[in-house]
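I'm stuck. Protein, please.
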Amino acid sequence: MSYSSAIFRNIMQEYEDQRRRNESEKNLRLKEIYQAVPGYKDIDDRIADISTEAAIDSIQGDDRAVYKASQTITELSARKKELLKKAGYSEDYTQLRFRCPDCQDTGYTGSSKCHCLKQKLIDASYRQSDIYPKLNEENFDTFSFDYFSGETLEEMKKIYKIARHFTDTFANTYTNMLFYGNVGSGKTFVSNCIAHDLIDRGFSVIYLTSLRLFELLNARIFRRNDTPYDEDAYNDLFKCSLLIIDDLGTEVCNSASNTAAELFQILNERDISHRSTIISSNLSLEQLRDNYSERSLSRILGGYELILFNGNDIRLEKRRRQA
């Protein structure tokens, strides 16, 4: 499964920072015990001396030095626990404490990702998708056919099945989809359902409106000093498991042709690497052809499953019923 290198790097840095905090907190507890429990530091110093002496003896050829030292250290460690217990502390008070005992805050158990790392990646993917606030409300569990009727209801049932099939088979199949049709007919909602389901399954999803996407591409192309450019965000467009581009066409009047060419280059590279993309647009196919070159658009129409949303504006209907 694909995750942004920046996301993974940041999460692993979090683990490293956590381990530093663990060590710092342990040292603070140890300092407290040295002051509060007479004799405890003396035992620690004795254990350190024994370890050093055993290492030297072992280098000099004493094969039993480490074994003999370990026996003595075990006895001294038991004495330390007795002192802690007598002073009212837990036996492990001076030991390292981990947020995740299973991986000891490394993110891995053996060579496998720990459950805590997997969850961090899922949570980061939610944030990366740019639609995190919406996903609790717009997902397959909240999907409702109540606002559809007649032919539109049957069409939406088919779209629901297509979306479910897309996520159920995502790990083993490669599919691109173009959602097009009326404003408010459910294109974004279905995209969010797909995003939510795939993120829960551990895939990385990036969601961007075409306006935000073209802002990112423009910043990269023109590299003006007053325009911040995020190289990692750009690279993630190629690497994420699923890229969702919402409202394609709204950016056309403000975008240069080379920016549109950059977009279609991204789509082409994703196609070559078999990484799925979903694009939604309120424009008809004819309007899309008018706004983009036939050669560029053919990359979408030729390799994407075309899904028409032909219903009325659901948001208006919801407001009407709530009034």
The two ends are 45 Å apart (CA to CA). Residues 5-109 form one domain. The chain has a mean pLDDT of 84. Residues 242 and 276 are 5 Å apart (CA to CA).
